C-alpha cells in the first residue's frame, strides 16, 4: 500500500509539474492510472450529483475527491507548491510551476549547520519533531556537507521548549495561514472564561510559558494571551485580517511587555527561604530577615502580579500598594475557582 501511494503521489506531482495550463480534477483523474483503476474514468466537470448518475458513480466521485484532496495535501506537506486557478467557466484547475518549485543551490558552513541542528533539537519533544527532522533531511539532499552532523554539533547543549498546551498547534497553523480564530480565555483575575475573537500574529515562549500575540477584535487592540489559560478548542474563522500585522521584533517586544519583562520601577517582597529561585535571580537587592524569610527588591513591570501569584504562600508583597492589591485580587479569584 505504501508503494502504491508513493507511486500515485509521484504521478500526480509529475502531472502538475509537466502541464503548462491548470488541470481540472477530471483531467487528473483520467491521466493518472491509479485513479482510473480505483474509481474509473471521470464523468465530466461538475458531475457526480446530477440527474442520471447512479449511486455507485456518485460514491466513486466522492471517494475520488477525498483521495485527491489528501494527495494534494500530502504533496504540499512535502514542499510542492501547488497553485489553484479558476477558469472563465468557474472550473478549478491545479498546476505546479517549475519556477516556484525550484530551489537555488544551498551552501552551509559548519556553524550554520550547527545552528540548524540546534534549532531542530529544540523541537524533539514537541509535535514539530517530525517536521524538524524532515527539514534536515531535505537540507542533506540539497547540499548540506556530509562531514557535518547537525545533531552532534554542540552536543553538550540539550535545549528544550515544552509544548504541552493543546492550543499550540492550531494557533501555530493559524499564525502561519493568517486565519482569525475564536477561543475561550480565562484571565487570572476571572472565575470564568470569556470568548475571544483574535487575529493571531505570532507565538512566543517566555519564562517557559507560551504566549500568543494578536489583535483582539472585540477590544480593537493588540493583546497577549497565555496559552495555558485557553480553555476548550481553538476554532478557525473565515475572512481576512482587519489589522496590520507588525514585524517579528515588535511582536516580541509586545509579549515581553505584557508578560512583565520590561520594568520601569521596583517592588519590595518577602520571600520564603529556599523558595522562588527565579525571583531571586531577578532581584536587584536582597537582605535576610529573622526567621524563614528574605526581603527582595525586584523589577516591577506589567504582568508581575500574575507571576508572583504562581509562587503562592511563599511570597508576600510589601510595596507598592497597587501591586499588593493586584496580587490579592488574583489569589481571591483563584480561591473562588
Summarize the structure.
By secondary structure, this protein is α+β, with helices and mostly antiparallel strands.
Low-confidence stretches: 45-52
Query: Numbering strands along the chain, what is their spatial order in the largest sheet?
Result: 7-6-5-4-8
Counting DSSP E segments of at least 2 residues, the number of strands comes to 12
Biggest sheet architecture: 5 strands, antiparallel
Estimate percent helicity. 25-40%
SS strand fraction: 15-25%
Average pLDDT = 79
The Rg value, from CA coordinates, equals: 27 Å
Tell me the overall shape.
elongated
Secondary-structure element pattern, one letter each: HEHHHEEHHHEEEEEHEHEEHEH
Number of helices: 11
Characterise this structure.
Helices cover 39% and strands 23% of the residues. With 337 residues, the protein is of the alpha+beta class. The strands form three sheets. A five-stranded antiparallel beta sheet has the order 7-6-5-4-8. Helix 1 packs across helix 4 (55-77). The chain is elongated and about 85 Å long.
